[in-house]
Amino acid sequence: MIYPFLDTVREAYEDFDKPIRKDDINKSIYFSVCHQIISGLNGDTENHKPYCMKLIRNLGHYYIDTDYFDPTFERCNILYNWIYHSSKKEGIPDNIIEKCFDDYNFQINRIRNTYKCSYDLYKNVVLDKMKLNILNLFDYNSNILKKTLMGTDVSNKNRCRNFLCECLKIYKHMNKSYCIIQGEQREKHSNICLELNKFNSAYKLFYGNLLGINPKIPSLDDINNEDFPRCLVEEAKLESGVGLAEGRVQGEGLEPQSEGTSHVAEQSDNGTSLNTSTVLSSMVGIPPFLALIYKVKIFLLKIQTTFNRNT
User: Helices in the chain by DSSP H: which ranges?
Assistant: First the structure.
């Protein structure tokens, strides 16, 4: 099965990740802008200049009549994903990213007064939506998780437990960042706190219905423990908290591939055949978080399919 939208995402992501060409007519402009940005910052940031130049190019405000200029909102979202993963990988300070957006805003405002890509959207909306999407997966699939945890398949039970652990890590990180504090910061993120409160209530109800199962699932009552929540160390895990978005796709995670499972075709409710191995292998090179969310959904679909076959 071919997924055209994945090709579009992958191609855009690869465009953003390309090095600056030697014949790029705007190379000297990128260098000048980044020299000014980095010179005004403290610390050893000179080695970040190549990344800065790449980001200035990707924002497209010096690249008129190319695909980089005047991006669609969809392309901005892919750019945000690229910025997040590539900056984490290369250790890029956030103030460099913010300054690049400042230059983008200034230049675009001079041209036409409107811009589509935004640092605020990148920082305060997109990343939070990514993390909340994982918590929504718990809510949408709580019945599947409950049935699996009450079942006899130890491997699937452990995977479900690890998924719950990672959900709680996200909850703890976001709740601490936005909702425990009082004042303007909490008010600014009131929608996020509302979603976290919903997760809190849903998880407590879920936990209360599964007391006494083995393996035991973590409780929100232990949230102040330093090692909260305890996850199974022997199982391959998703990355935690903000690092969840950096989760590696191949060779780890919820759906370990083996000769016995790699060719199993799953059936969704509408009868579409999904081959786990084929889908995941087709996702090589796309933004890791998109692949991670898709992988979790494939895993939950497989759990549901297994349960349906046994009932």
Answer: 4-17, 27-39, 49-59, 73-90, 94-111, 119-120, 127-140, 142-149, 154-174, 184-188, 190-208, 276-281, 288-309
Contact 229, 170 (CB under 8 A): no
Gyration radius of the chain's alpha carbons: 22
Query: What single letter denotes the amino acid at residue 234?
Result: E
DSSP-derived secondary structure letter, 100? H
User: How far is 130 from 151, CA to CA, in rounded Å?
Assistant: 30
For residues 298 and 273, is the Cβ–Cβ distance under 8 A? no
DSSP state, residue 24: -
User: Per-residue DSSP letters for 250-311?
Assistant: TT-SSS---TTTTTPEEE-TT--EEEHHHHHHTTTTS-HHHHHHHHHHHHHHHHHHHHHHT-
Is residue 99 within 8 A of residue 83, CB to CB? The reply is: no
Domain boundaries, the chain: 4-117, 121-231
Q: Is the pTM of this model over 0.70?
A: no
Q: Do the beta carbons of residue 192 and residue 180 sit within 8 Å?
A: no
Mean pLDDT by 10 residues, the chain (311 residues): 58 88 90 91 81 92 68 81 88 91 86 77 75 84 87 84 85 87 70 91 92 79 66 42 36 35 32 31 41 58 61 58
Contact (Cβ atoms closer than 8 angstroms) between residue 279 and residue 298: yes
Residue among 257, 232, 250, 242 at smallest CA distance from 163:
232
* Cis ω before 71 (30° cut-off from 0): no
Q: What is the pLDDT of residue 307?
A: 55
Q: In terms of C-beta density within 10 A (0-12 exposed, 13-18 middle, 19 or more buried), how is residue 282 classed?
A: middle
The residues with which 218 forms a beta bridge, in sequence order, are none
Per-residue pLDDT at 298: 61
Of the candidates 165, 196, 198, the one whose C-alpha atom is nearest the C-alpha of residue 180 is 196
Q: Which residue has the tokens 């709740």?
A: 175
* Strand segments (E) across 9-125: none
- CA distance linking residue 130 with residue 133, whole number of Å: 5
